[in-house]
């Protein structure tokens, strides 16, 4: 797994899919609040006047010299859950994000959110 401090260094780097197609630029990292390990990244996509942030899981990510290669296809990521560039993922939207990518969502027993932006 990529260390949290390491991936923050890749902010603004290109995020590409398994075939090398550019998805967008890495904006931030969401960590699992239970483990403090990187779980999702937000990627800036869209036209210059209409940017939005899409989410992509970081499991299976490969970091190269000038890119972050994720394990999901460009179309899957761009069609997935998104937020505005000044927004933060609401806690109530977390289950849908995990479901979209076929990941198991395990809410913490203490009611704290699963993902936190770093």
UniProtKB/TrEMBL annotation:
Q: What is this protein called?
A: PRC-barrel domain containing protein
> Which ranges carry the PRC-barrel domain?
7-71
GO CC annotation: plasma membrane light-harvesting complex
Q: Which organism is it from?
A: Streptomyces arboris
Top-level taxon of the source organism: Bacteria
Q: What biological-process terms (Gene Ontology) are attached?
A: photosynthesis, light reaction
């Amino acid at each position: 797994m990529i260390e949290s401090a390491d991936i923050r260094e890749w902010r603004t780097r290109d995020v590409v899919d398994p075939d090398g197609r550019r998805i967008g630029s890495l904006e931030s990292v969401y960590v699992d609040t239970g483990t403090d390990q990187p779980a999702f990244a937000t990627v800036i996509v869209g036209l210059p006047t209409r940017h939005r942030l899409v989410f992509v899981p970081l499991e299976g990510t490969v970091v190269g010299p000038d890119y972050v290669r994720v394990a999901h296809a460009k179309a899957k990521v761009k069609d997935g859950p998104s937020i505005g560039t000044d927004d933060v993922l609401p806690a109530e939207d977390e289950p849908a994000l995990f479901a979209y990518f076929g990941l198991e969502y395990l809410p913490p027993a203490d009611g704290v959110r699963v993902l936190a932006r770093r």
